[in-house]
Design brief:
heterodimer, A: alpha+beta, five-stranded antiparallel β-sheet, 2 helices, B: 671 residues, alpha/beta, Helix Hairpins, seven-stranded mixed β-sheet
Chain lengths: 77, 671
């Protein structure tokens, strides 16, 4: 399951980061590394981007980017 | 002994606040060479010959963004005596990620652990002594906003700078990554020393596959093969790729470090508060209306309630000074041309531009409040989807919106955009938003041609501007600005009360910047236009401006506008004077037609234009190059006169094409 499929309020643990080049590097640099817990907090009013919470800070990424983030142990309520 | 310090840290870590605390108003703002990334330098208070350079806010030293490259180059090539690394203690894991990379640069370093007041107030703690021991560099707890720990920080910095002790702790890793970095270290040691690169930094970057480092070290083909082989081995044993392996290694080290030094029971009060505020401000249904409400309020205050009266007072003041100078000059019996130069040229030209100053100061007061409070990041979050199609992010929305008021502060506001590409594209597109100085022109034409449909004409012009900006954005996105836009991965910082000092310094900077331009580029521009307007070809002062050089230039270029429906020298002359300020189009038309009342002007306009050609004239004035003040801002923000001229040409050509289409297609239907 990828991060863009997680509904607000739910969380998951990152399995791997897909994509390539600058985008992938940026995601890794921001702390989206394997085994990190990520919670989806909110969806922007127009449906995109999404707001996520990890490593005690809040980050916003677009759905397209979120779809590159593969999760394991997704906790879906 | 003189020192140069570099201030480095993440965005939103309180870097600017600390910089302001350390330097006071003793700052110089410029650009890094070759890019439009802001470089701030200042002298440290109470320290002799000690300056500090505020580097761009970055999250990593990868070579992907211009900001990261600029920071790397500055540290590698300018060799600052010490790096002050500001770390947000409420967000310590991600902030330390940059710290670990900075430590590899082999330059004395001190960590300023910021926001410690928030950490303590929330019942959490960071063991500063332990942290410092683990990292092997001094760590000073501070709260830049509350001015706590600043003098202690200064003492530690000066001591460290004098001792010149470089970070010794470099091994954050074990196992495969460690092995790879070490074997590559041995391989490239000589080349790294020769090119002035710290060995450890170079080796780590080569494991990451960093192109600039490969070039700087002149890595041979043979070495490349060896490096590839080492990295392949590492990737195979770890079952991951090089970039992920290194990011993972650093975050793992940080994880164990924080387990030992950081006690965190709960999120900080500010983080909890932010989540509550965002329940309203980024609400699914209310988020967008609230944003427009805030912008409307700011516009009303800037261009109405506060700005307009202040502008009136300033204009009166300028008028008083102008009259005074005028009387003195008449009394001293100076020649007519000198009188005209000073009064009609300098005072009228620069005066009319200077009266914008209150608007700029007030607008930037609000913009810094939005930026420093953390709301601007939410605007980007809420509006992102709208601008994505033209390859921009939500951040560009605010400058574009300000463009409806005045292009000058709008272009200046692009400074806050995090990507250079977005910044340039926003600067090109913003003047298409119809600015308030164009309203008198719309008023004049609608009264003469569309008295019954004034509102529809006005709205259609605003809509036309937006439409052209969108189409133009689509075109630019797939041509000039083609390539990878910076990914939209943006932190939403906790809301904080902005520091008065930072807001005031920001306002003062923008005001200073504008005044300087008013007396340079704008000054020269207005004098040129004055000269053309006041003299004929034999350089005699003309009584009647219809005999001026400007009027003859107007006549020469008038036929150019024939396909647009208005082949009239007065119209083309007015378009030229409109470059000083757009409302000058109206005054020039009344002067050149020799009318005194608006009613008479309407009659004359009806002889110059048809309703259709008057609309094409309006479309042209809406879209062609902005006034000199906006042009000067464009030049400053793009950092190059050539690019500013290209931008202005692009806008003027666009205006011509759009007006041409309107007139030609319109003629087909009205035949």
């Amino acid at each position: 399951m990828t991060l863009d499929n997680i509904k607000p309020g739910n969380s998951g643990v990152i399995a791997s980061i897909g994509g390539e080049g600058m985008l992938r590097r940026r995601l890794l640099d921001m702390g989206l590394t394997p085994n990190t817990r990520v919670e989806v907090r909110k969806v922007a009013p127009m449906g995109d981007p999404i707001e996520i919470f990890l490593r005690s800070y809040v980050l916003t990424i677009r759905r397209e980017e979120a779809s590159k983030i593969e999760l394991k142990e997704a906790m879906v309520l | 002994m003189s020192f140069v310090f570099a201030l480095a840290g993440n965005q939103n870590s309180g870097k600017t606040t600390l910089f302001n605390k350390l330097t006071g108003s003793n700052q110089h703002v410029g650009n890094f060479p070759g890019v439009t990334i802001e470089k701030k330098e200042g002298l440290i208070k109470k320290q002799k010959d000690t300056s500090i350079v505020d580097l761009p806010g970055i999250y990593s030293l990868s070579p992907y963004t211009m900001e990261e490259v600029v920071t790397r180059d500055f540290i590698l090539h300018e060799h600052p005596d010490l790096i002050i690394n500001i770390v947000d203690a409420t967000n310590i894991e991600r902030n330390l990620y940059l710290t670990l990379q900075l430590m590899e640069l082999s330059i004395p370093m001190v960590i300023a652990l910021n926001m410690m007041d928030e950490v303590r107030a929330s019942g959490n703690s960071v063991d500063v002594i332990k942290l410092s021991k683990h990292l092997g560099i001094p760590v000073v707890p501070i709260s830049a906003g509350k001015n706590e720990g600043i003098s202690e920080l200064m003492d530690v910095i000066m001591k460290a700078a004098n001792e010149k002790k470089k970070p010794t702790k470099l091994d954050f890793c074990t196992g495969e990554v460690h092995k790879a970095i070490h074997s590559i270290s041995h391989l490239i040691e000589d080349q790294a020393l020769k090119s002035g690169y710290p060995v450890r930094f170079a080796a780590t970057k080569l494991v990451e596959g960093d192109e600039p480092t490969m070039k700087a070290l002149n890595i041979t083909e043979n070495q490349k093969h060896i490096i590839e082989h080492v990295v392949d081995d590492m990737e195979k044993s770890l079952d991951t790729d090089r970039e992920a392996a290194l990011a993972d290694m650093r975050y793992n080290y940080i994880g164990t470090l924080c387990d030992d030094c950081v006690v965190k029971h709960q999120e900080t009060n500010e983080q909890i508060r932010s989540e509550k505020i965002d329940k309203v401000l980024t609400h699914k249904y209310f988020g967008i209306p609230i944003f427009f409400g805030i912008m409307f309020f700011i516009f009303w205050l800037t261009f109405g309630a506060i700005g307009a009266p202040l502008q009136g007072i300033l204009e009166e003041g300028i008028a008083v000074v102008t009259n005074l100078v005028s009387e003195i000059m008449i009394g001293a019996n100076v020649s007519t041309w000198l009188y005209s130069l000073v009064i009609d040229g300098i005072f009228a030209g620069v005066g009319s531009v200077l009266s914008f100053l209150p608007l700029i100061v007030i607008l930037f007061l609000f913009l810094s409040l939005l930026e420093d409070s953390g709301y601007m990041a939410r605007v980007a979050f809420v509006m992102d989807k709208m601008l994505r199609k033209i390859g921009l992010s939500g951040r560009s929305f605010v400058p574009m919106l300000i463009g409806f008021g005045c292009s000058v502060p709008a272009i200046m506001a692009t400074r806050t955009l995090s990507s250079e590409r977005d910044r340039k594209m926003t600067i090109v597109l913003t003047p298409f938003m119809s600015c308030s100085a164009k309203l008198p022109i719309y008023g004049m034409i609608t009264v003469a041609f569309f008295p019954k449909y004034a509102a529809i004409v006005m709205i259609s012009l605003y809509a036309l501007g937006i439409l052209v900006a969108i189409l133009s954005g689509l075109i630019l996105n797939s041509t000039v600005f083609k390539g990878n836009p910076v990914p939209f991965v943006m932190e939403l910082p906790a809301y904080r009360v902005p520091s008065a000092k930072s807001v005031l310094i920001h306002m003062w900077e923008k005001a200073k910047d504008f005044i300087r331009r008013a007396f340079t580029v704008i000054f020269i521009g207005t004098i040129i236009i004055w000269f053309l307007q006041s003299f004929d070809w034999s350089f005699n002062l003309v009584e009647d401006s219809t005999n001026s050089i400007l009027a003859s230039i107007g006549s020469v270029i008038a036929p150019l506008f024939k396909p647009l429906g208005f082949n009239d020298w007065r119209a083309s002359t007015a378009l030229i004077t409109g470059l000083t300020a757009k409302e000058a189009v109206v005054s020039t038309l009344s002067v050149l037609t020799g009318v005194t009342t608006d009613a008479e002007l309407s009659v004359v306009l009806n002889t110059m234009f048809t309703p259709l050609s008057s609309f094409s004239f309006l479309a042209f004035t809406l879209l062609y190059m902005p006034c000199i003040a906006a042009f000067a801002a464009t030049k400053r923000e793009l950092g190059s006169l050539k690019n500013a001229i290209l931008t202005a040409s692009y806008q003027t050509v666009t205006a011509y094409i759009v007006a041409l289409i309107i007139y030609q297609v319109g003629s087909l239907f009205l035949m």
